[in-house]
Amino acid sequence: MLTITNHTLEKLELLLKSAGYRVRYEKGNFKTGACLLQSSRMIMVNKFANLESKIAAVAELARTLEIDLHLLDEKQAAFLHQLKQTTLQL
Known about the structure:
- The protein has 90 residues and is α+β, with helices and mostly antiparallel strands.
- It has one domain (6-85).
- It has helices spanning 6-18, 51-64, 74-85; strands at residues 22-26, 34-37, 42-46.
- The protein has a three-stranded mixed β-sheet with strand order 1-3-2, with helices on one face.
- Strand 2 (34-37) and strand 3 form a beta hairpin.
- Helix 1 packs parallel to helix 2.
- It starts with 5 loop residues before the first helix and ends in a 5-residue tail after the last helix.
C-alpha cells in the first residue's frame, strides 16, 4: 500500500520522468485527477486536487503504462513492480 506523503508523490514523478514522461501540475477538470497526453508523453495532474487524489491518479496511470524496465534503476524497477502488484485502498 502506498503512503500518502509528498515523498511518495516525488517517487512516482521520478519513476515517470525516468521512463520518459513529463509530469505537470495545471488547473483542470479531470474526472480522474490526471490525464495522459500520449503523443507528447506528458501527464497533466490537477494542481488543486489534494495529495491523496494526486497520488491515486498518478499511481493509476503509472500502473497502466507500458514502461521499459531498462530505463529505470534497480530501486525504481522494484517500486514499479510493487506498484503493479498492489491496489490502492483509498
